[in-house]
Amino acid sequence: MSMIPIDYRTRHPLEDRREQLAGQVEQYLAGGHVIQSIPIGVSGEKDAVWNNRKRTPGQTDNAHAAFQRNAAEKRRLLADTVRYCAEQGMSISATADAMDLDRNTIRKIAAEHGIQFGKR
């Protein structure tokens, strides 16, 4: 008993499905309906999951701005300590080590608040 190889099938399974869909389309058009082209991203459903929440323009911009304001406030609170270290003659690296901060953060605080460290 040998099996017939798949290459010798008389009809491909997708051909049946294509014919079935073609028949449904013809039946739809025969009923007086018209096929419409719907743009990408339009679902046609009013209460789609992604449309439930009303989004306002710039919503993420507001969140990012709040984050930046919070970071600027933290730097403002650290400015007095940075100013004190600069007046004591400490370098940016020594100040960063003493405050347990990154040197770039110390540079940013100094630039924002007009703090000058020792000249080279």
Task: Give a topology summary.
Elements: H1 13-30, H2 59-87, H3 92-99, H4 103-113
Helix pairs in contact: 2-4, 3-4
**Major sheet:** none
The backbone outline, from C-alpha atoms, is: elongated
Distance between the termini: 93 Å
Question: How would you classify the helix and strand content by structural class?
Answer: mainly alpha
Average predicted confidence as pLDDT: 83
Q: Tell me the β content.
A: under 5%
Number of helices: 4
Number of strand segments: 0
Order of helices and strands: HHHH
| Alpha carbon gyration radius | 35 Å
Helix content: 55-70%
Low-confidence stretches: none
Domain Transcriptional regulator SutA RNAP-binding: 15-44
Organism: Pseudomonas delhiensis
Protein name: Transcriptional regulator SutA RNAP-binding domain-containing protein
Descriptive notes:
- With 120 residues, the chain is mostly helical.
- The chain has a domain of 51 residues.
- It is built from 4 helices and no strands.
- The longest helix is centred in the middle third of the chain and has 29 residues.
- It is elongated.
- The model has no long low-confidence stretch (mean pLDDT 83).
In short:
This is Transcriptional regulator SutA RNAP-binding domain-containing protein. Residues 15-44 form the Transcriptional regulator SutA RNAP-binding domain. With 120 residues, the chain is mainly α.
List keywords for this structure.
120 residues; mainly alpha; 4 helices
